[in-house]
Amino acid sequence: MHQADVQHYLPELLALQGSHGRLIAAAGMRPASEGPLFLERYLDEPLESAVSRVTGASPDRNCMVEVGNLASLSAGSARIMIIAVTWLLAMRGLEWVAFTGAATLFNSFQRLGLVPTVLASADPARLQGQVDQWGTYYDQRPQVFAGNIGFGFDALKQAGMFERLGFPMLTLETGHAA
């Protein structure tokens, strides 16, 4: 994708298979509690400070996660992956997700009724000599986004997305503030 030769992968990978076992989407995750996040290269401050500045919330870094390395065969499979990742992160008790994406990914969130907050532009100049491995990705002008997992979970649950896809629904205290 994007003629990229990516050398950086997040440590935990979630794969999504279609009904015949074919891989249709994948995404990586890294808890912010494990150290610096890849997307923090684009920020002038730690992720929790950027989220606080933009949203007014006071997030705990231990409850934040970066999602990245998203690849999908279609926009539809990307949306299913967004639903699956939201469910998984909520079940793990995480509160904030951050990711880097372009307009096509943002559109997938909007089609699901989710509106992540823009934190910053993903400026390739901040990658210090690693731009070439990303191919044409930066031609799309990606941005760094953040979203409250509890809000996203509630919106997807109210829209019937989890039930429609057969996700088990456990009692979940999302604990988010308005």
Automatic annotation (TrEMBL):
Superkingdom, taxonomy of origin: Bacteria
InterPro entries: T_hemolysin (IPR022050)
Pfam families in the record: T_hemolysin
Stated name of the protein: Thermostable hemolysin
